């Protein structure tokens, strides 16, 4: 059965590989996560008062964009409006529950878009489809959908060309007619190259949902290899993930993923050709959390060494025991991603010995000329059995003082 060919916009999206998610809104002032209003059952009149203390005085879009770029990210998705119903953009008379009616009085989406473009990043807009604030969400759903489309139309018309829309909330009314044809059709008229994503929720990872969708989502779960045979069009994949246990700022959330966890998740996504969208939750008035910044700095150092195969490598059918995998680039090179490799050093100081030794990959059909570590150029011993389609190379340990979590070997083949 024939495989669909990806459109140019989807191919460009897949090549981005790594993006930043930003959850920020009125809820950030509470420091209890993005669902604070719903979970704590805060009455709407009380919650609405948060607009009067939203100054955005610490929000620095230029710093955020630079941080994303230095981390190796190629795009940023910002919550233009989350489920609370508050908009970070000028709704131009559509609603008074927006940033222009707060003390900030700045169109933060305009600042965000400008900063992204200055750093060569692609801006995406997260926009909720469910809305705790708008009365018509429960009372008159068709009228609410008119409001939703008008909100998205503003984002389509007033910020230049954008990378796409990241919708979230249809799972709240699974049996409703969301009139997606009208919403997506309107986006295509104004933003024909936009990537359209609609999150299917934590329990429905990988579900397409609508023919116009360009990428499926996996919320905080590793994406699987997609079987695209017979699909009417090629659809990409993306995993969205948090550093902690919340999307919005959690003042008392100390349960952070390690840099090791994040690099491994990053690579797990690329194994199956999926993007990794990693979240940051700015503080009450938009400050960038220091631990988030430190984690991104470390990931950026890894990406500066390993970026080429990460961005341009494509999944292969070549297999290996464990989590190791191999990607191929358009120039004919293969790259082996090796997990859990340990440090080589004196026994009195090296306590993490292990993982060093032969790694056998099955499915290699080309004659291999060389295998070397990408980080230091060290040539590795290898053996090949073309009849069995096997390549085995000796994975040497990290020199003392190094550990990249996932180490990459460049494999050059005879042309």
The amount of helix comes to: 25-40%
Task: Determine the number of helices (DSSP H or I, runs of at least 4 residues).
Answer: 10
Structural class: alpha/beta
Strand content: 15-25%
Estimated radius of gyration: 23 Å
Look up the CATH topology of the largest domain. Answer: TIM Barrel
How many individual domains?
A: 2
For the secondary structure, the number of strands is 17
CATH class descriptor of the largest domain: Alpha Beta
Instruction: Characterize the largest beta sheet: strand count, sense, and whether it forms a barrel.
Output: 8 strands, parallel
Structure, explained:
With 415 residues, the chain is α/β, with parallel strands linked by helices. The chain has helices spanning 8-16, 36-39, 44-48, 61-70, 108-118, 136-139, 141-157, 180-190, 259-271, 290-312; strands at residues 18-22, 75-81, 122-128, 164-168, 195-199, 215-219, 236-241, 275-280, 314-315, 319-320, 325-328, 334-339, 357-362, 368-373, 382-385, 390-395, 406-413. The strands form three sheets. An eight-stranded parallel sheet has the order 5-4-3-2-1-8-7-6. The protein has a five-stranded antiparallel sheet with strand order 9-11-12-17-14. The chain is globular.
